[in-house]
Amino acid sequence: MPRPSDAPDAGLRTTEPRDVEVLIIGSGISGIGSAVKLRRSGVRDLVLLEKADDLGGTWRDNTYPGCACDVPSALYSYSFAPNPEWTRAFAGQAEIRAYLDDTASQYGITPLIRFGTEVLRAQWQPNEARWHVDTNRGRYTARFLISAAGPWHEPLTPDIPGLADFPGTVFHSSRWRHDHQLDGARVAVVGSGASAVQFVPAIQPRVSRLHLFQRTAQWVLPKPDHYVPRVERGLMRRFPVAQRALRGAEYAALEALGAGFRHPALLRAVQKVGDLHLRATVKNPRLRRALTPDHTLGCKRLLLSNTYYPALTRPNVSVHATAVDSVRGNQVVGADGSTAEVDTIIMGTGFHILDMPIARRVHDADGASLDDHWKGSPDAYLGTTVSGFPNAFVLLGPHLGTGHSSAFMVLEAQLDYVAAAIHHSRSSGWTSMEVRPEVQAAFNAEVQQALPTTVYNAGGCSSYYLDTNGVNSFSWPWSTGRMRRRLGEFDTEAYNVTA
Questions:
Q1: What is the 3-state secondary structure (H, E, C) of the chain?
Q2: Yes or no: is domain 163-224+250-347 CATH 3.50.50.60?
Q3: Fewer C-beta within 10 Å: the chain N or C terminus?
Q4: pLDDT digits (tens, 9 = 90+) for 192-222
């Protein structure tokens, strides 16, 4: 891939900037994408703060066996940086991680990242019209603050009685212990979501016993994955229009599926595919009943796998259709009384999605955090700006989650809005811009009014889309086309500004 025209200037500063125009928290897909977008729009004075020693976000952290994307590769990439070299229709973790590294390097973002720099506290200073950001390596100040920390970042480990006293090894799937010997081990897997669906088939042949504790059965559809031959990759490389056509076709297909999320009755045909997939791969009636969901497909995150169900039928696997009640010594005890004697526990229990830890570290002028403002129900205008927090933006924030599309589609819609907002602020001489509280409240009301008829709310399940107050703070109840239109134009009248 040739070096883009917006690669860094030859005379990049070698001294450490502590006061910058834009400060970005995180260097995953959101942080890298926002840095590229802002540089292309003319913003040169920016820095990314990354607490880890490498970039990549969730694709750096999640290295469990079998880790891969559940969105087609052509869609799971930046539109400005198409990758003709994907070797699979659904890319694996290593390829995605390499893609992010290559993109950051090619677009000159890597030198702007301050690795090993953790944000401890950020607070708006109205007298200076700047953000003060305290880190483990000192203070930064910035005119604009962008939170790109992401919702799939901090692992969620449930408070299970006795877990702390387990004599064996315990780890979360996103903090995989590659040094831990699984060959011949007796393993309990807690959770049956997106991560477990991928790593269970990968470790099943290696372990002596695998006990899967499944609180809720999930719909799992066949995954149309395949190896991409060299000739096809060569075609994509030589004719970029072919890759754009593939991306467009995959987007249209997923948007057609998305119509079912807004009209759950349409998902019944897709749900039959899931039912047939289960019946074809799991012959044991008792096991099949345990794996049959009691909610509408799409109510929880859509899962794809060709290997999960077959792995659960193997002789060394036991499915416990129950939540975990406690751990007693080396026994995991289910809520139904079933037990499993194990020496390793792997938590496939997801992440702090709507209670993002970064929300406790970003504060308004009076010292109240985002977490204090939200009171358990995250809220942002167009999922991007929050009243009380001037000159600040949240990427992949509340109200923007979809059950069918790519996070890159959501992100790039947001980045258009953020770039336009910063452009307006710079060109109009604003010192600060803050979304009006009544505008934010009206948008939230609009979202909540539309959600009850979607499968997210009407599908009959409890999912991470619902916050601690039982409110769906995660989902976008319309099409991504409507999202792109809403975010495609910066609405100055929605903001209180100071010049």
A1: CCCCCCCCCCCCCCCCCCEEEEEEECCCHHHHHHHHHHHHCCCCCEEEEECCCCCCCHHHHCCCCCCECCCCCCCCCCCCCCCCCCCECCCEHHHHHHHHHHHHHHCCCHHHEEECCCEEEEEEECCCCEEEEEECCEEEEEEEEEECCCCCCCECCCCCCCHHHCCCEEEEHHHCCCCCCCCCCEEEEECCCHHHHHHHHHHCCCCCEEEEECCCCCCEECCCCCECCHHHHHHHHHCHHHHHHHHHHHHHHHHHHHHHHHCHHHHHHHHHHHHHHHHHHCCCHHHHHHCCCCCCCCCCCCEECCCHHHHHCCCCEEEECCCEEEEECCEEEECCCCEEECCEEEECCCECCCCCHHHHCEECCCCCEHHHHHCCCCCCECCCECCCCCCEEECCCCCCECCCCCHHHHHHHHHHHHHHHHHHHHHHCCCEEEECHHHHHHHHHHHHHHHHHCHHHHCCCCCCCECCCCCECCECCCCHHHHHHHHCCCCHHHEEEEC
A2: yes
A3: C
A4: 999 999 999 999 999 999 999 999 999 999 9
Q: Say which DSSP state 222 is in.
A: -
Pick the CATH number of 19-154+352-498 from 3.40.470.10, 3.50.50.60, 3.30.1050.10, 3.30.450.20: 3.50.50.60
What are the boundaries of each domain within the chain? 19-154+352-498, 163-224+250-347
The average pLDDT across 22-44 equals 97
Alpha-carbon gap, residue 328 to 410, rounded angstroms? 44
Q: Do domains 19-154+352-498 and 163-224+250-347 have the same CATH topology?
A: yes
Percent of the chain whose pLDDT exceeds 90: 93
251 pLDDT band (50/70/90 cuts)?
A: very high
Residue recorded with tokens 């075609």: 235
Residue count of the chain: 499
The DSSP secondary structure of 229-293, one letter per residue, reads: -HHHHHHHHH-HHHHHHHHHHHHHHHHHHHHHHHSGGGGHHHHHHHHHHHHHH---HHHHHHT--
Q: Which of 162, 57, 62 is closest to 411 using CA atoms?
A: 57
Contacts of 265 (CB under 8 A, 6+ apart): none
Pairing of strands 362-363, 209-213: unpaired
| pLDDT category of residue 356 using cuts at 50, 70 and 90 | confident
